[in-house]
Amino acid sequence: MTTKNILPKTGIQGLKENWKSDIMSGFLVFLIALPLCLGISMASGFPPVSGIFTAAIGGLIVSFFGGSNLTIKGPAAGLIVIALGAVQELGNGDAFRGYQLALACIVVAGILQIAFGLLRSGILSDFFPSAAVHGMLAAIGIIIATKQIFTLVGVKAQSTETLEMMSEIPSAFSHYNPEILIIGMVSLMILFGLPLIKNKYVKMIPAPLVVILLAIPMGIFFDLEHEHSYLFLDHHEYTVGPRFLVTLPDNLFSAITFPDFSQVFSGTGIKYIIMFALVGSLESLLSSKAIDGLDPYHRKSNMNRDLIGVGVGNTIAGLIGGLPMISEIVRSSANINNGAKTWWSNVFHGLFLLVFVAFFPFVLHKIPLAALAAMLIYTGFRLASPKEFYNTYAVGKEQLLIFITTIVVTLATDLLVGIAAGIILKMIIHLLNGLPLKVMFKPLFTISEIDGKVVVDVLHSAVFSNYIKLKSALDNLPRKSHIVIDFQNSYLIDHTVLESLAHYKSDYEREGGLFDLVGLEDMKQLGKHEYAARKKSKEQKAIIKGTVF
Predict the structure, then answer these.
(1) How many Cβ atoms from other residues are within 10 Å of residue 7's Cβ?
(2) DSSP at 245
(3) Where do the domains of the chain lie, and which CATH numbers do they carry?
(4) Whole-model pTM?
(5) pLDDT digits (tens, 9 = 90+) for 52-77
(6) Cα–Cα distance for residue pair 291/69, rounded to 1 Å
(7) d(CA 181, CA 435)
(8) Measured between alpha carbons, how far is 24 from 339 in angstroms, rounded to an integer?
């Protein structure tokens, strides 16, 4: 047996065995997480220290639930839109009261997530169509980048609505604050430029860390700690001061803020509880699934236990003034790349954050907000990059339509309405492709044993909305067998199902079994991608035997 195939031990034995690699990875992830926690807090309308509280709880408490091996728990850009919306809507102009009321929603959402885990709802991540999920994330990216542009150039937006703020961007650049813009643009150039350098040693340096190491001296050079005015081009006067720097309390315990439950069951409160719980759980599950695919030891997360852990973490975070948390994919990827072996790396990452903020808050106060805004703009760009549009188009034109619809509706309304619009459009497309309403949520399949193989004969269709029952049946089949998914009697297979089955095949064969998909060759692909939806012609549909149409 090779060393790579020997799974790292867990618990105290895992700590003794892997403490060197885990503490090093935890430290490197801490360097990446520190500025991102501050930036996400700032963009969410929460105090900067809120993100640190959340990451510390995610590392020092949630890690011990053992739901996942290498995911880093903490605040994520994907929940900025919800957190900021909660503060603004619930506070009605009073930012601090809105913050306290939003904390109450996070607490209840955390309890709801615990219930999701206990009810084994981890499988729900397979229900949402891929194009709608990616559309939701792209919309979040656009919203984040739009809002942070104003901080980057040193001006205040007049509106709080995304579409209206977009229309203000030209005006923002025409009224920019030169010193703030210089810090922001240098930070952006580092974030976009450093990954393009191919040198392996340069690639080991976290770009956010470089941004902070350069932005702090620039802030000192421009004397941002003291309120003052300066002339630019000898005739324009601008003002800078501490408001352009991160603000932290001198005492960490004085930053603890308790929630206000007075509006938690109002219509607005319930709306944000659902959004925190639903979007947070979905993002967390998808992130954990993606990180499992990167784990060099091919371990699988216990999604239900992970949901319980995240729910407990969110409940505690909400009770002391923290942001909502998820399994965060960027920091988790860095964790793997830095050689982490077990969940102790997440513990160390949380510990480093807590110690640094407790003993060195004066360093954090010197970080210019424009540098943090640049990091969030970069994050937003990655979520909504042109590559995402092209990749979705490659899967199929109908996928691009769902993707764009989800984005547009989200920008015009909110995340829940946006994701619902994507799901409804996907269902309408399936109905137009000949899928009867009666099988939209009820898969038709049989399971039999033929020549030592377990054959799952899928009848009529396998689409995102009826896949959960099929996947549950697959999960109950014996491991290390030979499973054949037969689509000979199928008429329509959508992209979400094909992508999920590809991941399932990879996981199953990693455990020592065989997993084959047959009958797809007779179906027309609706896109260039290997997982593009497939469908049979009307003539083929008419001659399929043993299927209810």
Answers:
(1) 13
(2) B
(3) 8-351+361-378 (no CATH), 437-543 (3.30.750.24)
(4) 0.85
(5) 999 999 999 999 998 889 999 999 88
(6) 9
(7) 54
(8) 8
